[in-house]
Amino acid sequence: MTRILNGKALLATALLAALGSASAADKATILSEGGAAQYWRPVAETIAMPAYPGIVADKSEDVCVGVGYMLNTDGSTSEFAVLNAWGSKTDKKVKPTDPHFLPFAQNALAAVQRWKFSSTSGVESKVKPIYTAATFAFTTTPGSDAATLRGHCTIADLPDFIAKAQAEAYRRRGNLNKNTMDRNRTQNAPEIPLKPFP
Fold it and tell me: I need a surface site. Which of 61, 105, 108, 141 has the fewest CB within 10 A?
């Protein structure tokens, strides 16, 4: 399932859905980018880096995109979500889900969807699902430093990032429930029976 999310609330909801989709016995472990290397190694022929999108008119902007994904017990990837995005010519207030980043996000997600991994222990069935991230740099600037560019989007502590997103989702869900109850209370006010005069 691929998600290009619209706002932090949808991101939190998607992360809850992705992490809740693993069965209780196979609950996913959340590891920051690079943390899965102790359990999984990439299958070289499946690992391709996304290209700068051809449909982008101004190819002079440097962009990075951070993608979250589930690394399943069979070495495949799923539950994709755009977690972060940055552009050198983009206003800092623009969200990662802004249409401006869509071509970059689509290329990043398409690359991660093709990735395959093999267990470092050689026994895939014993490895629990892992939710992790990958950060991609898109540049046409000669001599630009991809590591510095990726640094704008890398999430240093993915477990903390997800915990905050989940807390925000629970908070918003609580507010939605309260708003629904308040609306129902005013729209469906209980009828007070009137007593007839004697």
Answer: 141
CATH superfamily placement of domain 2-173: TonB (3.30.2420.10)
Domain segments of the chain: what residues? 2-173
> Smallest Cα–Cα separation from 162: which of 74, 93, 69?
69
pTM of the entire predicted model: 0.75
- Compute mean pLDDT per 10 residues along the chain, 198 residues long, and list them: 47 55 60 93 92 90 95 93 93 87 95 93 73 95 90 95 84 66 61 51
Token pair recorded at residue 12 = 């939190």
**Cα–Cα dist 155/67, whole Å:** 10
CA 58/CA 40 separation, integer angstroms = 37
Q: How far apart are CA 198 and CA 195, in angstroms?
A: 9
Q: At what angle do helices 158-187 and 8-20 cross, to 10 degrees?
A: 110
Note whether 135 and 150 are within 8 A (CB): yes
Task: Name the phi and psi angles at 56, rounded to 5.
Answer: -75, 125
